[in-house]
Amino acid sequence: MSSNPQSVLDVVLNSASVAGRKTYLHRMVYIGEHNLPLQGKDNIFNVFEHNIWKINEGCRDEILTGFLLVYSTHFAHILEVS
């Protein structure tokens, strides 16, 4: 065991370096309530997809990815982005 403890940032940067990555990802979890329809033109899936496309249009090292769980009035959206 090393006498100099590493910070979490040191571990993440070292792991990214070993994997040949120049960036590392942030994971965000959004949990919320909605009143959007599950079917139709303005459904909740189209709203989230539109927002992701708009974010990915900008300059990013890694595109925004993740997944969306939708229930009748609630959602959980897990996103990863640099």
What attributes characterize this protein structure?
alpha+beta, 82 residues, 30% helix, 2 helices, three-stranded antiparallel beta sheet
If you had to describe this structure to a student in words, what would you say it looks like?
The protein has 82 residues and is of the alpha+beta class. It has one domain. It is 30% helix and 27% strand. The protein has two helices and three strands. It has helices spanning 8-18, 44-57; strands spanning 26-33, 65-70, 74-81. It has a three-stranded antiparallel sheet, covered by helices on one side. Strand 2 and strand 3 (74-81) form a beta hairpin. The protein starts with 7 loop residues before the first helix and ends with a strand. The mean pLDDT is 82.
Could you give a short description of this structure?
The chain is of the alpha+beta class.
Low-confidence stretches: none
Question: Largest beta sheet, briefly?
Answer: 3 strands, antiparallel
Shape: elongated
Count of distinct strands: 3
Number of helices: 2
Distance between the termini: 31 Å
Structural class: alpha+beta
**Proportion of strand residues:** 25-35%
The averaged pLDDT comes out at: 82
Give the radius of gyration: 18 Å
Helical amount: 25-40%
Tally of distinct domains: 1
What is the H/E order? Answer: HEHEE
Widest sheet: strand order?
1-3-2
